[in-house]
What we know:
six-stranded mixed beta sheet, Metallo-beta-lactamase, Chain A
Amino acid sequence: MEKILIKSFTSGPIRVHPYVVIDREAKVGCVIDPGGDSDLILDEFVKADARLLYIFNTHYHPDHVAHNGIIKDIVPSVQIAIGVDDAKLLETDFSNFAKHHDYPIIAGKADVLINDGQIFEIGNIGIKCISVPGHTPGSVCFYSPELKSVFTGDTLFQGLIGRIDLHTSIPEKMFDSLMKLIDLPDDTQILPGHGRNSIMGNEKAMIRQMHTDFTFAQNKMV
């Protein structure tokens, strides 16, 4: 059995990917973007006899935070962590989204406000927070050298980037944010909020072109 578990799900009406990360030796872990399937997420911690330390949100949008509160109710000690500039937005009234999709949103409130460069220790796993404003004001990517992975939420996908035409987006910051990911090793696995995985080496040319060609970038937004 591997010492570290990374498991993804596909959840909710917009098919978001929550991720479970568990250090099986230290018996601790975290979940990233629990947009659904809280029962399956928590079952992974039961099977591993591990303690859930953090819920990390890449940003505040309802499809990514829908089951924050459900998990918090079951595991009161878990800390909900989100970018400092998305913390208040986590308390948005999501009732229109919930009604439209017939999908309850129980987002909870932030316990930990994440700043750029902050590092969390999950047993022997380091999680470095990279502030990437653009899709939302407080979007964060979570990079782990030990996992050779970066969890990008809706900032970076396979061959695409997240939308920056939403009412809380900051389009002028998106491309500088993406450039912050350029320094990650080429073999870093990209674990996005939707769609297929990629690796950084496959996305760097696209990111560099976007930085100088806005028309090209507009055609790469989803």
